[in-house]
Write a structure and sequence with these properties.
alpha+beta; Outer membrane efflux proteins (OEP); 4-stranded antiparallel sheet; two-stranded parallel ribbon; about 60% helix; TolC family protein; membrane; OMP_efflux; coiled coil
Length: about 425
């Protein structure tokens, strides 16, 4: 019986609830219910705030200052002339002033910083999409586990029915002394084993339903009808995985950072001004409180950075190479998964072909048994056993159909859906 319950040991991570539960709806519900989906809005808010700060680069900067000083010596003019008083400078000084600086051109840094923030936002949103896409695999696993569990239960129930019919015949033989009691005990043991498997299947199905409920936020009864659209595996060469968009956005981010580094070496042009009131003012020889102002234009340029900028660019180039290797590794792993899944699909398709042949044979055998029963050449128990064998073969066919659809759905999810 192991082959009937092998899927139940796969990771089960979801569940849902309503009378009819479409697989595609489960994907949508899981996405909308994912707590981290709210991060999308938060990332956009953070980006808007950072860009708002960057825009203040061209806002005037005003600094208010005030100071009082007393110094032990002051500059004196070594001149003595009769009738002429040479002014002296006070040792105490008072000054209150406002300084203003206005960026005229920052070398393109603010524009580059805003572009970088947009690139970072795209990378963060792409990373979120990668997280969200992983939900699809969990949803599909739990969804099909529920379907398989129902089909497996039907197979096991049919086998128990067949055993019960055999037990009737054997118990009659035991009473007549024609059959050993141990024969009945063997069947009873197998029946208990099948019943135990049914219990395990039921627990697995309940777990799947509960986990789907958690992931989707939709309460679905364990007896709900799970439906899905039958679709063949997408064998095209196109890949729609969100990881590919993430790699692309990360490359864009690194390229934007390189552009920003280039602009940090540009000269900066700015205007400045100073308005104040103090003693002395700008005239150092006038020992009285006076208002004053000055304005001007400045230019700054870091002529030598000791190749710091160059090394930073080399780091970004290395990171781009690392990103390229990560993408190549990812694609290699995807190709490996697709090869495995193709083989799984091919295996199930072959099994279904054999199932159809088996159903045809079992149907023929059952018809033949019915004819023999009418002619009383076999017992009713013999006929029931053949009928149950036909039922089991049909149920197995339906089970393998579900497994094939699950394998095809998984293949499509691996490629990107």
């Amino acid at each position: 019986m192991k082959k009937y319950i092998i899927l139940l040991f796969f990771p089960i991570q979801m569940a849902l609830g309503q009378n009819t539960v479409p697989l595609d709806s489960c994907y949508v519900w899981a996405r909308e219910n994912y707590p981290n989906l709210k991060q999308s809005v938060l990332w956009q808010q953070i980006t808007a705030l950072k860009k708002g700060n960057i825009e203040t680069t061209y806002f005037p900067k005003v600094t208010l200052n005030g100071q009082f000083t007393y110094q032990s010596e002051v500059t004196e003019l070594p001149i003595e002339m009769s009738g002429v008083t040479v002014p002296s400078v006070s040792k105490d000084r008072y000054n209150a002033y406002a300084e203003l600086q206005q960026t005229i051109w920052d070398g393109g840094i603010s524009v580059a910083n805003k572009t970088l923030e947009d690139a970072i936002l795209k990378s963060n949103l792409s990373q979120l999409e990668v997280e969200l896409y992983k939900l699809n695999e969990q949803v599909a696993q739990a969804f099909f586990t529920t379907l398989v569990a129902d089909q497996q239960k039907e197979v096991l129930t049919a086998q128990i029915t067949a055993i019960n019919e055999s037990l009737k015949t054997i118990e009659s033989g035991i009473r007549n002394g024609a059959i050993e009691k141990s024969s009945a005990l063997v069947l009873e043991a197998e029946k208990l084993n099948l019943e135990q498997n049914i219990v395990e299947i039921g627990a697995a199905k309940n777990a799947s339903a509960q986990m789907l409920t958690i992931l989707t936020g939709e309460t679905i009864d364990k007896n709900a009808s799970f439906i899905y659209s039958t679709a063949n595996a997408n064998l095209s060469s196109d890949f729609l995985r969100p990881e590919l968009q993430l790699f692309e956005n990360q490359r864009l981010q690194l390229g934007t950072q390189q552009g920003l580094l280039s602009k940090t070496r540009n000269p900066k042009l700015y205007g400045f001004g100073k308005v104040g009131y103090g003693k002395p003012g700008l005239n150092m020889l006038l020992d009285e409180f006076k208002g004053y102002y000055l304005v001007g234009v400045g230019l700054s340029w870091n002529a030598f950075d000791w190749e710091n900028n160059s090394r930073q660019k080399q780091i970004l180039q290395i990171q781009q190479e690392m990103l390229k290797n990560q993408e190549a590794t990812f694609m290699q792993n995807i190709q490996l998964l697709l090869v495995q899944q193709k083989e799984q699909i091919a295996k199930l398709e072959t099994m279904l072909e054999n199932d159809n042949k088996m159903v045809a044979l079992r149907t023929y055998i059952t018809k033949s048994a019915a004819s023999k029963l009418e002619n009383q050449t076999i017992t009713a128990s013999d006929y029931v056993r053949e009928l149950q064998a036909e039922t089991i073969s049909k149920l197995n066919t339906e089970l393998h159909k579900i497994q094939l659809n699950q394998a095809q759905e998984k293949y499509n999810l691996i490629k990107g859906k």
